Amino acid sequence: QVQLEESGGGLVQAGGSLRLTCTASGLRISSYNMAWFRQAPGKERELVARIVWASNSLDYADSVLGRFIISRDNAKNAVYLQMTSLKPEDTAVYYCNAKYLSFDRWGQGTQVTVSS
Question: Which of 8, 36, 74, 85 could form a disulfide with 48 if both were Cys (CB 3.0 to 4.6 A apart)?
Fold first, then answer.
């Protein structure tokens, strides 16, 4: 059974840091495009950062460029999102996503709340 499990969310003050972890089971993350999305209340889910499986190229939303870093550890089958200089507008539920062709799987999400 394929599962993505996020962890590492929490409450942090503006300017602080958090590291989110997505642990995969039932699939090898090295064979998928792995991404972090987020959804704030009343807003659509948006892409935060992505690693393309074939090229290892990285994509970031403009709003997090220079503050967030996505990485993966194939040996641990995990994807990370290091978030620094957090802002109140980063408050959202953060979701891990694995995608390739028609395969598209989501984790349950982890809440990140940034206080001002």
Answer: 36
